[in-house]
Amino acid sequence: MKRLFLFTLLAVLSFSLITACGGGGKSAVKDSSIEVIDDPFQDLTDLTSDIITGGGLAAVGQGTSERQDLAKKKAVTDAQGQLAEILEAKVNKMKKSFQEEIGTGSNTEINEAFTDVVKVLSKTTLRGAITKKTKFMKDKDTGMFTAAVVVAVEPNTINMSLFDEMQKSQPKLYERFRASQAYKELEDEMKNYDEN
Amino acid sequence: MEPGNFKRYLHLFFPIILFLITEAGAIDRYPEWFLYPGRYQGLITGYSYRGIPAESVAENLYCAYQRCFAVGTLEIFDQEKNSRILKNSNYFYEYSPDSVEAIRGKLVEVDHFAVNMFTQDYISAFRCDSVQSDSWPILETKDLNTPTWIELSVFEDETYYYGVGMYTSRGLENDAWQTAEEQSIFSILNYRLMKINQISMYQDGSQPVGDDYQKITIYEIRFLLENIQIMERYPDAPNQMFYVLSRIPKANLIPLYK
After folding, report:
1. pLDDT one-digit tens code per residue, A130-152
2. How far is A120 from chain B (nearest CA, A)?
3. Residue B2 lies inside a defined structural domain of this protein
4. Distance from CA of B169 to the nearest CA of A (A)
5. Among B86, B97, B179, whose Cβ lies nearest the Cβ of A179?
């Protein structure tokens, strides 16, 4: 009995040691659930970066539809919406750097002009936007088309539109000098001023 | 058109087209009278402007700079960290229509240069008399020294107030020079502005610092100006800015506040 007990105890201890030692090895790794997918429109993104680096505005838009032409239209609309946001950010940045350049309280009409023209520019400048590149993908199973486009505005179009708009929105800058009948009233006021 | 004729026309027109294209770009040289008008007393600068001939603009500016009233108001909006924003600008330089009639057609053009061949914009120099035109040096912008006054907005000496105006050179050049010129005069007026009303709003008794307050200040502009002189113009090509320096004798800047 005593031998049986000791034998059983020894077997249990040995089994424990074996499994404990055996537990030092690594367990099997499960396959990663993360899959790296390449951007099918990376070349469009690269083109956009090149345009922006060159001083222009550009954005990649995307659209999906059962019809190829509608997919492209959606993509263009998406890109134009992004361009409007980028343009507003650009104008605000230009305003800030312009203010820092000239200091506040000096050319403050420019500040006002910037604020006013942003909304107008979003409409007018985007008229000069052109679709630089288009790419289509088709899902064979569903038949759905995905279109991606690069819509861009050339640098000259942006700059000329911005400052032309500023000048148009500030007509008083150009009609500020005026020959008027009010001058005579002011002359009379001046005479009274001298006499007093 | 026969091929031979086409080649002949191409040889004839190509230099003209090339000239127009190069001249239509930003100019890089100016006559000395334009950059340093202070050295040429008696010369009046005129800018062709949106179809208006340079002579008409020169007549108006001549009269205004001789004697005018600057009248109106400015509303300045202060908010957050003392940033000042012009809320509304409503002032004009009123000059005599009789003086314009008196000078009409009497200015004599002595020089001019084109700033844009496609838009047919040009800048001219006029005299009141019929003195024969002088010859003046043509200055290249790359050879100009950057004047120190462009760092300032207004300064004074014993006799004069000096004002500096600036405007971006991107866009229509004539408009830019005129705007910078007007801004130089306004700089002097701004130096002498008188506040007539101020409204401040605070949040729950907060101190007027930081982000807790808004303030609107109304300034009155009411001056008699005489003998305004444009002294210098500086085209800062690398930074695309035009600068103008003007001055008014202290004795000829009279505030008319009641």
Report:
1. 788 899 999 999 888 999 999 88
2. 17
3. no
4. 9
5. B97
- Which structural domain, as residue segments, surrounds residue B136? 30-255
Q: Could you say which residues from 100 to 159 on chain B have a Cβ atom under 8 Å away from some Cβ of chain A?
A: 100, 153
Mean pLDDT, residues B120-136 taken together: 79
* Mean pLDDT score of chain B: 79
Decide if B10 is inside a domain.
Answer: no
Q: pLDDT tens across B186-213, in order? A: 888 877 766 555 555 554 444 444 444 5
Using a CB-CB cut-off of 8 Å, the residues of chain A touching B87 are 112
Q: What is the pLDDT of residue B19?
A: 46
Chain A residue nearest residue B222, CA to CA: A186
Q: Which residues pair with B52 in a beta bridge?
A: B49
d(CA B115, CA B120): 8
Q: What is the distance between the alpha carbons of residues B120 and A123, in angstroms, rounded to a whole number?
A: 29
Show me where the domains of chain A are located.
42-169
ipTM for the complex shown: 0.72
User: Which residue of chain B comes nearest to A168, CA vs CA?
Assistant: B175
Beta carbons within 8 Å of B122's beta carbon, 6+ residues apart: B48, B54, B112, B113, B114, B115
